[in-house]
Amino acid sequence: MHRAIRALLGSRWPLLGMLGAVAALVVAVVIVADGGSLAQAALALLLGLALLGLVVVGASAREAEQRARKVEKQLKELAATTRTIASTVEAIGRRQNDPSGGPLAAIIGAQRVDAAVRHDELVGLHEDLRTTLTEDQLGELSALANLYAVLGTDDEVPVFGGYAASPQTVLRLVSLVRRLPQDALIVECGSGSSTVWLALACRRAGRGRVVALEHHERYAGRTLDALARQGLDDVAEVRVAPLEPVTVGTEKHDWYAGSTWSDLRGIDLLFVDGPPAYVGTRSRYPALPLLAAALDDGALVALDDAQRPAESDIASDWLAEGADGVRLTDGGLVGRTRFFTASRS
């Protein structure tokens, strides 16, 4: 009988109980309103409260039952896992006691690998690495190792890759810092890992300061954060420089706003790594014409991504045209960056 009633009601009994409690409350109100017996009204009210209590207790019991089932399931899973682990440990024990070495010995060999064999393996691994990586990749890895060895860092530096200058380029740039005057000004078009490394080189050499022009506020913020982590705020500055239309000769470009660089004078090292190519095909061309007047005699100029056709044309035009009384001498290619020396006629 109890099962039949439970099957009939199913999960609807809380709702029925609530309806019964409400009905009892209504009956109590009606009895009082009609001037009926207060005892009857109180009895109806107590019945409603009893039904409400049953609903609450039943819900709590149902929740407890569900938790108990969940715990029971977890215990079963834990027991199964324990049995699996015990079986695995037992199997390992049997293999360790096997005089022949078991399947494990068949895989790695029963004999011990002595120091000479390990040396041969390392040599073989090195040769595999040489055949896997190109000479350029090995050169970049070597340059990166040199950077950390020469400068070291107190915290993480923005990683290379993407739009960042290559390790070979940055290594050459930081090595040039030592040859610059005590009050040297280094200007970078674009910002990122190269900004941090140049600032580290200035701090290590005890000379120079870095000013980076960055049109992208998010990238500027990341570079500023990296400089702050290294405590380089006193030797490096990142200026948010929105792009604005500019006409150079017969060409129209979007370049860094003049208000962000017009105060720069006495530039000893100019590293042109921006704006990025998506801004325009020859987006980096204005760097020399617009900043030539600010270059010191003998200043060094570096144009990144010189292997690309657009930058290759820019390098040729800079060499042929010069700007504002400044002529460039080709200093050769390092990695993917072409270097020049500026001189005044």
Q: Care to describe what's here?
A:
InterPro entries: SAM-dependent_MTases_sf (IPR029063). Keywords: Membrane, Methyltransferase, Transferase, Transmembrane, Transmembrane helix. One of its GO terms (biological process) is methylation. The chain has 345 residues and is an alpha/beta fold. The protein folds into two domains: 2-81; 138-344, Vaccinia Virus protein VP39 (Rossmann fold, 3-Layer(aba) Sandwich), CATH 3.40.50.150. The protein is 54% helix and 17% strand. The protein has helices at 2-9, 13-33, 38-96, 102-108, 115-132, 135-150, 167-177, 193-205, 217-230, 287-291, 309-321; strands at residues 185-189, 209-214, 236-240, 243-248, 251-256, 267-272, 295-303, 326-334, 337-344. The protein has a seven-stranded mixed sheet with strand order 3-2-1-6-7-9-8, sandwiched between helices. It starts with a helix and ends with a strand. Mean pLDDT is 77; it is low at 103-114.
Topology:
Blueprint: H1 2-9, H2 13-33, H3 38-96, H4 102-108, H5 115-132, H6 135-150, H7 167-177, E1 185-189, H8 193-205, E2 209-214, H9 217-230, E3 236-240, E4 243-248, E5 251-256, E6 267-272, H10 287-291, E7 295-303, H11 309-321, E8 326-334, E9 337-344
Parallel strand pairs: 1-2, 1-6, 2-3, 6-7
Antiparallel strand pairs: 4-5, 7-9, 8-9
